[in-house]
Specification:
A hairpin with a 5-residue loop joins strand 4 and strand 5. The chain is α+β, with helices and mostly antiparallel strands. The protein has a six-stranded antiparallel beta sheet with strand order 2-3-1-4-5-6, covered by helices on one side. It has four helices and six strands; from the N terminus they run βαββαββααβ. The longest helix has 15 residues. Helix 2 crosses helix 3 and helix 3 crosses helix 4.
Length: 153
């Protein structure tokens, strides 16, 4: 199953590049992340990064992707919004707004919710989610307090 990742805002291409670098650093996702570029707009040089496509298959790739995205969001400052488009046109929107303030339990719930949404009911084990959530929890990169938001449409 492929998941398409889009970012919103003026610095969308920069956010996607940052996320791409983060994702290729995850062993379970190596070789699964592809960048799709759009032709350059008039007057600009070079293509523009438009979308990341992540091939998620069986095993721990869904959970690894969920953890990696949430860990990356924890390092972002300000309003960062990404949209994950799943097969069948369903989408999951994640907005980082001081996500680093989430406690361990809230982070575990977000990882589990996201993995379940991506896996369409998820076959990932709760123990694996808990173990990997601890890795994401360590990525405290900025502000404290606040909440994260996710919506499944």
């Amino acid at each position: 199953m492929d998941v398409r990742v889009l970012a919103d805002g003026q610095d969308a291409a920069d956010q996607l590049r940052s996320l791409q670098e983060w994702l290729v650093g995850v062993e379970e996702l190596r070789g699964r992340v592809t960048a799709e570029e759009a032709p350059p707009p008039p007057g600009k040089l070079g293509p523009v990064l438009e979308t990341l496509v992540v091939a998620l298959g069986p095993g721990g790739a869904v959970t690894a992707f969920s953890v990696a995205v949430l860990a990356w969001l924890r390092t972002r400052r300000g309003d960062v919004r990404i949209k994950l488009t799943l097969l069948g046109g369903r989408s999951l929107e994640l907005t980082a707004r001081r996500v680093s303030g989430l406690d361990a339990e809230a982070l575990r719930r977000q990882v589990a919710d996201m993995a379940d949404a991506l896996a369409k009911g998820g076959a990932e084990g709760e123990g694996e989610v808990e173990a990997i959530a601890e890795i994401a929890e360590g990525g405290n990169g900025g502000e404290t307090g606040g909440t994260g938001r996710r919506e499944l449409r």
